[in-house]
Amino acid sequence: MALILNIIFYIFVFLSLYVQVFFFITFFENRKKIVIRDGRTKLRYYPKVTIAVPCWNEENTVEKTVRSLFELNYPKDKVQIFLIDDGSTDNTSNVLNKFVNYSNIKIFHKNNGGKHTALNLGLENSDTEYFGCLDADSLVDREALVRIMSYFEKDPTNMAVVPSVTVYNPKNFVQYAQKAEYNMGVYFKKMFGFLGAIHVTPGPFTIFRRKVFDDLGKYRQGHNTEDMEIAFRMQKNQYKIEHCNDAFIYTNTPKTVKKLYKQRVRWIYGFINNILDYKEVLGKKKYGNFAFFTLPAGIISIFSVSFLFGRIVYDICHYLYIKLLKFNTVGFDFNFKHISFDPFFINTQVFVFLVYVLYFFVIFAIIFGQKMAKEKSVFPLKMLYYFPVFSVVAPLWLLKGIYNTIVSRKPAWR
Amino acid sequence: MNSNNLDWKKYFIVFLITICLFLTASYLSNYFGNQKINQLKVIQDKIAIDILSSETQFSLLSELSCKNISDSTFSSELGELGSKLEWSQNNLGTTDEVSYLKKYYALLQIKDYLLAKKISSRCGVKSAFILYFYTTAENCSLCQQESFVLSSLRTKYPELRVYSFDYSTDLSAVTAMLQIYKIKDTVLPAVIINDTVLTGFHGVDELDTILNDSFKLQEAASTPTVKK
Predict the structure, then answer these.
(1) pLDDT digits over A157-212, tens only?
(2) Do A344 and B39 touch (CB under 8 A)?
(3) ipTM of the prediction
(4) What is the mean pLDDT of chain A?
(5) Of B125, B140, B172, at which residue does a domain stop?
(6) Are residues A30 and A194 in contact, defined by beta-carbon separation less than 8 angstroms?
(7) Which domain holds residue B217?
(8) Per the domain annotation, does B34 fall within a domain?
(9) With an 8 Å Cβ cutoff, is B147 touching chain A?
């Protein structure tokens, strides 16, 4: 049994390493294509864009979100803003009404039906060639839209362009941990973009060609991850999704581990269930890297983390059992004189070296993601919070996502 | 529309690179594993020399005087070797080399035990010995508990010498000892104090009393172990 578990363990380590090497090689193949622009970007032609801001109890953040849209480096008459109150029970409605007199803003109030219904209301009322969503807890950089639109101008086959999402004003260790993760996400998103295999078009400011919805239909509930479902649908229909790495969106992130846990359970649940909904795509040659890399890599990470977590929990329990056994047998041992460092006892098993290599790839992704996100400091020490927060809590939301899938219990938004 | 973007060559190259990383990790692990084995061999050689030296010293002096024979004659690194071997077995696996070293270790313990016993009887040097038989072949939680008891006693009485033997060690000398004391694998753990065979688990207090009845032992300067 121990041998079988060991073999499974090494298979997971191999697959996890394979995924990271794949990203690394993709980076080296394409590194010269990564452009990080400074200053104002100009377009030959400025198409009209609708930005829908769905709100559900966002009284604290939505005003800032809307005001950030006013600052966009884009002709005002070309940006139509829809503020959609999805049945908020707080003061959101009154906050939105402050913008009632702005000519390029339309305000909608509807009964609560979920984010996808709010977006679909926006779609129904929009007549522009481009349509995008901006979550009401996020702020746009003034160059974000024009840079995204430059990708559409450059390549007419681009059907959606996703931005780089980073953390807005982190204050505590949970948010710093997420900042490292989001920066790493910028790097991975770019690599997925090069592979033509992006699996999520984030709520904060992905811009679509209207044609996507005309051809493929409106937003769906998508297990509370409508931004993932539409990306899966686009990949299934081979619609190109690109990543504009220098279009920055700053998002408010959960402040507590509990809120983070809840958010991530929803994401993981959505990811697993969207994979199940689109399982026919897996391993089909015509869907390219999305079918052969993105989805398998996601599945591998879910299984690897679950297995490793199980193993770590077993090891911890075994350690505690031995300590308890010792305590029961001889009492508490106060004698620490015999504890001394001997390099002989440093673990030099094969997996230890492989874990070092995996850490190297993770740190590389964080550092390069930082660079792409134009962070001032290359590797602030606060980024190290990522490791304890995500290695301890991530397996829990992963397992909860799996559990919810098994018992088909949908997680709440908040 | 999205073009088919599969690049099989890249998938294969990544596979080869991953294999190379695995092989490199394997090589490094093997290299450091061998370094540890070599370190164990050096310790064992040192112990062998120590024992041989003690035996020779004993042969030279026994007929004249016992005054130069003391506890310091015994090799002090047996305990360290034992813990390193145990760690190696858990972390490097039960390889041929580790098994071989374990046999060698068992043999060194027996030699050390016989020498200590000889010196003790002829020169009247006060030495307390415990022979301890356990098994790693099956999950023996009582053996684990007995090990804690013996470690605790060894900390309490620095002059106490505990010789541990894995029942599953395939060595005729160990088998001979098992036969002498009529120990079977069904009664493990087994502890032998002053030729008295105690099978099954025996707690600290019980063994402490037996040890004090058999040998007059001096406690360590500070009392490190606190019983519940």
Answers:
(1) 999 999 999 999 898 889 999 998 999 999 999 999 999 999 999 999 999 999 99
(2) yes
(3) 0.89
(4) 91
(5) B125
(6) yes
(7) 127-228
(8) yes
(9) no
Q: Among all chains, which residue has been given the structure tokens 């900042």?
A: A179
Number of domains in chain B: 2
Query: Using an 8 Å Cβ cutoff, are A325 and A317 in contact?
Result: no
Which tokens is A191 given? 């690599």
* CA atoms within 13 Å, Cβ hemisphere of A214: 11
B134 and B64 in a common domain: no
Q: Pairing mode, if any, of strands A240-251 and A138-140? A: antiparallel
Do B60 and B28 belong to one domain?
A: yes
Is residue B172 domain-shared with residue B139, that is, in the same domain?
A: yes
Answer whether residue B2 is part of any domain: no
Reported confidence tier of residue A297, pLDDT bands at 50, 70, 90: very high
Chain B residues touching residue A196 (CB < 8 angstroms) = 2-3, 5
Last residue of a domain, one of B62, B96, B125: B125
Do B79 and B158 lie in a common domain? no
- First-to-last alpha carbon distance for chain A, in angstroms, is 41
B136 and B120 part of one domain: no
Nearest CA in chain A to B26: A350
Does a structural domain hold residue B4? Answer: no
> Chain A residues with CB inside 8 Å of B29's CB?
348-350, 352-353
Of the listed ranges A395-404, B7-16, B18-27, B45-54, the one predicted with least confidence: B45-54
Residue B31, domain member (yes or no):
yes
Same domain, B105 and B162: no
Taking the CA of residue A103 and the nearest CA in chain B, the distance in Å comes to 36
Q: What is the mean pLDDT of residues B196-203?
A: 88
In a mutagenesis test of the A interface, which of B5, B17, B144, B219 is the best target, namely the one with the most A β-carbons within 10 Å?
B5
Highest mean pLDDT among A100-114, A310-324, B137-151: A100-114
d(CA B75, CA B66): 18
At residue A71, the pLDDT reads: 94
Q: Is the pLDDT of residue B4 over 80?
A: no
Longest CA pairwise span in chain B (Å): 100
Whether residues B172 and B190 share a domain: the answer is yes
Tell me which of A234, A242, A348 to substitute to probe the interface with B (most B C-beta atoms closer than 10 Å).
Answer: A348
For residue A153, what are the CA distances in angstroms to A11, A30, A40, A147, B98?
44, 21, 16, 10, 67
Residues A242 and A162: their CA atoms lie apart, in Å, by 6
Give tens-digit pLDDT for A71-106: 999 999 999 999 999 999 999 999 999 999 999 999
Least confident of A21-30, A187-196, B7-16, B143-152: B143-152
pTM for this entry: 0.86
Q: What pLDDT, on a 0 to 100 scale, did the predictor assign at position B225?
A: 40
Q: Are residues B54 and B111 in the same domain?
A: yes
Whether the CB of B91 is below 8 Å from some CB of chain A: the reply is yes
Name which of B18, B77, B141, B201 to mutate to probe chain A: the one with the most chain A Cβ atoms within 10 A of its Cβ: B18
Q: Which two tokens stand for residue B134?
A: 């356990």
Q: Minimal CA–CA distance to B174: which of B227, B99, B67, B81?
A: B99
